[in-house]
Structures are given as C-alpha cells and as structure tokens.
C-alpha cells in the first residue's frame, strides 16, 4: 500500500474545466494534483474533438471552394486532396495546443501533473495507477471530477466483428475512403460526413430518427438534409440497423427503413451515435458519489455532488457536451470555491454550433421549445438568399430564424443555418444576455455589408 499524500485539491482530467481550475487553485497557492489518463493533456476538445476536427473541416472547405472556383471566375483545374498532409497539419496543431497546455501547468510550484488512471478508494481518497506501472494514493479536502466522456458503441449484431471507425480513428486515415457509411445523424456524424465528401469519398448517412439533427425544428432539419443531398451525400433516415457484417468491398449494414429491408454497403463505417460518461473507471461507489442509471454524475446547479467536498464538471455530468459549457462550469466552481461566491448553472443561455458548411448555429429556445413551454410565440425568418453578404460571397444556402415572446418582446432563441452561422447567432445571444427587445436589433445600426447587419432584415419580417 503506497503512502498517502495529503493535498488541498485533486482534479481528475485536464479538459476545459480541469485545466483552468488547476491553474486558478495553484495561483491561490493550493497544493494541487491534476490527473490525466491520456498520453496528452487538454481533454477531448484539444486532443480529439474541437481542435483536430475543425482543423480538418478547414481543409475540406478549401477543397470545396477550389472546386467552386469557376463560380467566381477563378479556374483551378482538377482538385485533389492529400489526406496525409491534412492529417499532418491536424497533428501539428493538436501537438502545439496540448504541449502548450502541459507547459502552462509546469510553471506553477504548487501544481503537479500526474499521468495515470484515477479511481476512488474513499470519499476524497484517490488511487492513481501511473502510466509507468507504479501506484500513488492521494487524499484532499477538495476533489474535482472532469473526467469527460467517450464515444458510445451501440448494441448492434455483428458490430463487434467489423473494424469500424470512431471520431478519433477516422482522423488518422491516410487516404479518403472510397465509400464512407456514417451511422449517426448528429453533430459529429454530419461534420465528418460532409468533410469526407469534400475529401473525395462517396458518403451515406444512416440515422434512426425521421430527420437529421432531430432536436432542431423540422424546417432546420429539412433544410440541412437538402444541403447534404445537394452535396451528393445519400441521407437515409428512419433506419433501424439490425446487423453489421464484413462484405467483399468493406462493410454491409442490414436496416429496416420505413418497413422495408435495405442493404447499405460501403468501404468504411464510422459509428457516431453519441457519447457515454467516463465514470465507469472511477469506482464512484467507493466514494458514495451518486450517478444516474446511465452513469452521468449527479450534481446540483453549483456542480456539487452528493458528497461534501467533491464536485463534478463538464461532460461527465450529462451537461450539454460542449467545450463552452465545461468552461462555464469551471467559472462557477472557481468563483464559489475561491471567492466565496454563489455562481450557478441556472439561467445560463446555451449556444452551440455545428461546423457543417453552412454552419448551424443555435442559441436558447427553438420554435418547438417555446411553444412547448406555453410561450406566446412570434417567429422571424429570413432566407440567406436575401442576405447581402451571402449573395456577394455566393453562399446563399440556409436561413436565419428568431423566436420572440410576443408579450414581452424578448428574444427567446435563434437559429442561423448559413455562412458563419455561429458568429451571427452569437449576436443574438449577446442581445438575449442584455435582455434587449427584438426591436433593438431591427432598428440597430450595423456595419454594411456584414452578416450581422442582416439581423435588421430578419426582425423586419415581424
């Protein structure tokens, strides 16, 4: 049994809540250890999520624009993609970000980065199996869990017998698949589907829901499906996959689609059907920490677990799995623990962006959400084909949409499926944070010709 090391704080995970929290605690001179089970620091976002995927999305967009050069009077000839160069660029950026994060931790005298796998052996007592094979035992007055989540593998007959890809391994391919089948019509699956279509693959998206991104309003889902089909992507919705098997050309899916059996074949299969929490290796029972039936750690609005002195932050709590929500959890915990504040998750306005092209940006309530909440709803909608900047850049696909409360004139939410949709929807979010009435955006003076200026026109439709 290793000697017990007494600390002020232990943090499990170097993700977008754990890393800044470690720095804040170290600045406050807390004796802190932060534990990372991966080979690199930075969590999902830096190592295998936002940073690498958006790097590759950028390469795919360049290929797309190059092929469209003639539309702008620019002739480029045949366009080919060297996926090994794309991969190298992605790796270099990830290594730079991860290395910078690691160096940032080493500058704190009271902070130690421990590379290993953590598990609880008591309420605030943790055993770490180090990468080198040794074991350490840590105890602290404060424990913060930022263990994240991983790809979910569905229970489909035969799936365990085929060499399928996930959102990490697909980014390590050295050449584009001949025909990529994507199982899952959510954010991860759709970003990769369009990316590899632009890299030169044939692509089929298979999803069990009636439409892609089923949490969005139907008009958003339908418009996105139309965009994907315009891009030459085969979209198969309402599909219940019964079996997966090896085939001569790669892989074969047997699915029930609208009551009929359909065989879907491809050279490669990407499984992108959601995530599960990395709580199963933590031995939560040894600490008495409560988790729900799916393994998400239960916390209150201050990110506190049911065990005094133990907090959980980010994806492992079942919060919306975005970097910015995880970072906001850090802000809440830092303010409360170090400053004696009363910060809370309550009332925060959730934005998110799917980095397809065009982007799908959304904030707050959808039209369906607002109606379900019993709001007196008014809806403003403007096609991107009526947005000056979109016309000038010849990127006119999609539309803008805002949902307002007819009684208070407050903006309840908005969706922008359009060029730089994430940037435009952020303007709506700032207006919502400032509790501006929708008329303020209708009547505001914005620089011409910007995409944000089109918010004038959007709210004029009311």
Keywords:
alpha/beta, about 30% helix, about 25% strand, 20 strands
What does this structure look like?
There is one protein chain. The termini are far apart. The longest helix is centred in the first third of the chain and has 24 residues, at 83-106. The protein is of the alpha/beta class and 462 residues long. The protein has a five-stranded mixed beta barrel. Strand 8 (202-206), helix 6 and strand 9 (234-236) form a beta-alpha-beta unit. The mean pLDDT is 96. It is built from twelve helices and 20 strands. It has helices at 18-27, 43-47, 50-67, 83-106, 187-199, 218-230, 323-339, 367-372, 388-392, 421-433, 438-443, 454-460, and strands at 4-12, 32-36, 111-122, 125-130, 135-145, 149-151, 179-183, 202-206, 234-236, 239-247, 250-257, 260-266, 268-271, 275-277, 310-312, 351-354, 359-364, 377-383, 399-405, 411-418. Helix 1 runs parallel beside helix 7 and helix 3 (50-67) packs antiparallel against helix 4.
């Amino acid at each position: 049994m290793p000697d017990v090391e007494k600390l002020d704080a232990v943090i499990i995970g170097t993700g977008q809540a754990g890393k800044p929290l470690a720095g804040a605690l170290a600045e406050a001179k807390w004796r802190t250890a932060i534990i990372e089970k991966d080979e690199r620091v930075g969590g999902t976002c830096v190592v295998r999520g936002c940073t690498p995927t958006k790097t590759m999305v950028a390469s795919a967009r360049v290929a797309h624009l190059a092929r469209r050069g003639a539309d702008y009077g620019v002739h480029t000839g045949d366009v080919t993609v060297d996926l090994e160069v794309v991969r190298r660029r992605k790796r270099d950026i990830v290594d730079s970000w991860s290395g910078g994060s690691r160096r940032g931790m080493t500058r704190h005298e009271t902070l130690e980065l421990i590379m290993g796998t953590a598990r609880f052996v008591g309420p605030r007592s943790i055993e770490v199996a180090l990468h080198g094979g040794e074991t350490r035992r840590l105890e602290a007055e404060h424990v913060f869990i930022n263990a994240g989540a991983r790809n979910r593998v569905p229970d489909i007959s035969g799936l365990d017998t085929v060499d399928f890809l996930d959102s990490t391994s697909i980014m390590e391919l050295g050449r584009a698949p001949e025909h990529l089948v994507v199982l899952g019509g959510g954010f991860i699956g759709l970003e990769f589907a369009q990316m590899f279509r632009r890299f030169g693959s044939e692509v089929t998206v298979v999803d069990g829901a009636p439409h892609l991104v089923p949490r969005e309003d139907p008009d958003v889902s339908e418009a996105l499906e139309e965009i994907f089909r315009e891009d030459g992507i085969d979209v198969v919705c309402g599909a219940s996959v019964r079996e997966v098997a090896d085939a001569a050309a790669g892989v074969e899916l047997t699915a029930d689609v609208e009551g009929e059996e359909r065989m879907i074949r491809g050279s490669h299969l990407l499984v992108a059907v959601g995530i599960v929490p990395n709580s199963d290796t933590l031995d939560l029972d040894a600490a008495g920490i409560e988790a729900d039936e799916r393994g998400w750690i239960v916390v209150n609005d201050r990110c506190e677990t049911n065990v005094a002195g133990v907090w959980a932050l980010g994806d492992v709590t079942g919060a919306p799995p975005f970097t910015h929500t995880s970072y906001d959890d850090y802000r809440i915990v830092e303010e409360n623990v170090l400053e004696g504040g009363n910060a809370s998750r309550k009332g925060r306005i959730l934005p998110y962006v799917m980095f397809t092209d065009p982007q799908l940006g959304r904030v707050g309530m959808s039209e369906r959400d607002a109606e379900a909440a019993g709001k007196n709803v008014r809806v403003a909608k403007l096609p991107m084909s009526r947005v000056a900047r979109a016309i000038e850049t010849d990127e006119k696909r999609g539309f803008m949409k805002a949902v307002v409360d007819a009684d208070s004139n407050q903006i309840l939410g908005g969706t922008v499926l359009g060029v730089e949709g994430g940037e435009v929807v952020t303007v709506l979010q700032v207006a919502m944070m400032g509790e501006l009435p929708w008329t303020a955006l209708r009547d505001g003076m914005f620089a011409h010709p910007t995409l944000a200026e089109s918010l004038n026109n959007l709210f004029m439709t009311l």
